[in-house]
Amino acid sequence: MGDTQSMQNGEGGGRVTRLAPSPTGRMHLGHVWSFLIAWGVARRSSWRIVLRLEDLDAQRARHEAEADVRWMLEWLGIDWDGEAVRQSERVEWHVQCMRVLESKGVVFEAPQSRAELRALRSDAREAQSRGDGAANTRASDGADAPHEGDDVLRFPASLRPPRDHWRFADRAMNHRLALETGHECVHDEIFGTRTFDPANIWGDPLVWLKAGVASYQLAVVADDIAQGVTDVIRGSDLLPSAALQQRLHALLAEQPTPPRWWHLPLVRDAAGKRLAKRHDALSVAALAERGATADRIRGVVAYWLGASESPRDITREAFLEIDLERTVRTLQARGTACQVDGALEAWLVAR
Ligand code: GLU
Q: Which atom of ligand 1 is nearest to the CA of 18?
């Protein structure tokens, strides 16, 4: 596709990675963990780094959150190449990708609301009586990046409209990708080979939202292709999504090879819960206000990497001296736990 050529950053076959924050809240230690590693691996090996602001969720994306991302990256000495790209400015490219999917006969309009899909589930009554409030939990249906603990909302093939209605005519309607069941192997640099059936997880996932923008799953693949991304480094809760993204990649890219995947173990709080935007006290901005320095934050990442036996201050230069690529590859095999307990938090903010 034409846009692919003009956006291609991987000159001379060089490798490209991306930092892809969603500016919906303050960045926390989980973001720092993946951004510092992605940046460090890339800088040590002269890969290109793209900064892509994933701001398609207009209800949640905020200017202060984008300012927080930029402040955090600068404070930690994380730089990138070229202009930052906002996904909200790339809607026409996403439409072109929808046209490709339409020409392949794999997308259809799906008016069903999340509430309707929940009501269809056999466990709906049970969930209600348990009072676990699935409706208040984030839904994983392709619209946003799915994270651990999300309520997976599967769209069954039985709800598809007749095939001769499969098209992309109305941008103000939700559209889904008809996914056939089948195993997809994800070769991950950290987790090894993992097999998923994305149709079994999500059924037919959302690719276009009635808000007039691509879903997370479509936008991420469309932009990884357009920006020539060769290496995706991010949290392991997106590992199953890699299987779906490979399917989309095969439908959209001229070059059939999907990116190399590097899924990192998740950063957890003292109770073992994945860090999320609700952990605002562990946001980088809050930690900095409480006295943490950039050297200490890097020190925590180096400690989780196993590069030091106890946390200690690490300068930007010292961080880049760590053999990140080798260390990162063995993270999962070493059973690394990235946990922010009280002692680590106290060390971070000690003046
Ligand atoms: N923007 C997504 C998030 O912050 C990450 C997307 C990705 O790395 O694929 O959850």
A: 8
Into how many domains does the chain fold? 2
Nearest atom, ligand 1, residue 220 CA: 9
**Is the residue at 257 inside a domain?**
no
Evaluate whether residue 223 is within a structural domain: no
Compute, in angstroms, the gap from residue 166 CA to the centroid of ligand 1. 29
Looking at the fold, whether 126 and 55 belong to one and the same domain comes out as no
State the Cα–Cα distance between residues 144 and 214, nearest whole angstrom. Answer: 10
- Whole-model pTM: value is 0.93
Q: Are 72 and 40 in contact (CB under 8 A)?
A: no
Task: State the closest ligand 1 atom to the C-alpha of 145, by its place in the atom list counted from 1.
Answer: 10
Residue 53 C-alpha to ligand 1 middle, in angstroms? Answer: 9
Same domain, 186 and 280: no
* Whether residues 98 and 182 fall in one domain: yes
Q: Which of 238, 245, 263 to mutate to test the pocket of ligand 1 (most atoms within 8 A of CB)?
A: 238
Nearest to 107 by CA among 171, 201, 57: 171
User: 142 alpha carbon to ligand 1 midpoint, in Å?
Assistant: 12
**Boundaries of domain holding 133:** 91-215
Q: What is the pLDDT along the chain (351 residues), one digit of tens a residue?
A: 444 433 444 443 599 999 999 999 999 999 999 999 999 999 999 999 999 999 999 888 889 999 999 999 999 999 999 999 999 999 999 999 999 999 999 999 999 999 999 988 865 555 555 555 566 788 999 999 999 889 999 999 999 999 999 999 999 999 999 999 999 999 999 999 999 999 999 999 999 999 999 999 999 999 999 999 999 999 999 999 999 999 999 999 988 899 999 999 999 999 999 998 788 889 999 999 999 999 999 999 999 999 999 999 999 999 999 999 999 999 998 988 999 999 999 999 998
CA neighbor of 261 nearest in space, from 319, 332, 346: 332
Burial tier of 309 (Cβ tally within 10 Å: 0-12, 13-18, 19+):
exposed
Looking at the DSSP assignment, which residues form a beta bridge with residue 274?
268
Domain edge (last residue) among 182, 215, 248: 215
Q: Are 200 and 207 in contact (CB under 8 A)?
A: no
Domain finish residue from 215, 244, 277: 215
Residues 202 and 95 in one domain: yes
